[in-house]
Amino acid sequence: MIAARLPTLANVAEHLRDDEIHVWRLDYHPRDGRGPLRAVLGAYLGLPADQVALADGTHGRPSLAGGHDPSLDFNWSHSGVHALVAVGRHIAPGIDLECLRPHPRALAIAERYFSAEEAAALLALPPAARSAAFLELWTAKEAVLKALGRGLAFGLDRLSIAGTAECPSLLRLEGDNAAAWQLRRLPIAPELVAALAWRGGERNIRFGTLASRG
């Protein structure tokens, strides 16, 4: 993986390469709905934001509606006032973002919904470290499920994450070859936990931040 900073959206959208994934960080306000997402995608499609048509899949994953560039795919996630948008060609990226915060029930949730190996790993940690580790597992699982086009109903215990906090890996994915997947931790900010997943070969990840509109 090569992480690089992106210049402004307008300067790079038309140059998205097949061996890249662009990840944009932007402010999020619920009142804006999917407007900021459409603005990002419009830059890649060469369209005004209000002409970007989205469709929701069976399990809620948004996608570009028919008529748009079929090679382009995306995913987005928001938490608090922050959002991330991942854009790539010829792959279906999955991205998940959470604000770092205490989770007093992290172990209980993991023991009920995660794999036995993941729950055991959390149990082995000091209590003070469990909240961050729980969110690292959660975002990694969500990123894979979103790339897969499935929701939480798929079952969080049907996939297992191993490795370190900085370098997670998909150890098991029921019904699929886990080795065919890429999973990356995104170093966005100390107060944010984020992960990116896709099925396919290595790609260069390029980061950018869109200026706040105030």
Automatic annotation (TrEMBL):
A single GO BP: lysine biosynthetic process via aminoadipic acid
Write out the entry's keywords from A to Z. Answer: Transferase
- Tell me any Pfam family this protein matches: ACPS
- Domain (4'-phosphopantetheinyl transferase) spans 94-190
**GO molecular function per UniProt:** holo-[acyl-carrier-protein] synthase activity; magnesium ion binding
Keyword Transferase among record annotations: yes
Source species, domain of life? Bacteria
Q: Name the Gene3D superfamilies on file.
A: 4'-phosphopantetheinyl transferase domain
Instruction: Extract one GO cellular component term from the record.
Output: cytosol
In which family does this protein belong, per the annotation? Belongs to the P-Pant transferase superfamily. Gsp/Sfp/HetI/AcpT family.
Q: What is this protein called?
A: 4-phosphopantetheinyl transferase
List the top taxonomic levels of the source.
Bacteria, Pseudomonadati, Pseudomonadota, Gammaproteobacteria, Lysobacterales
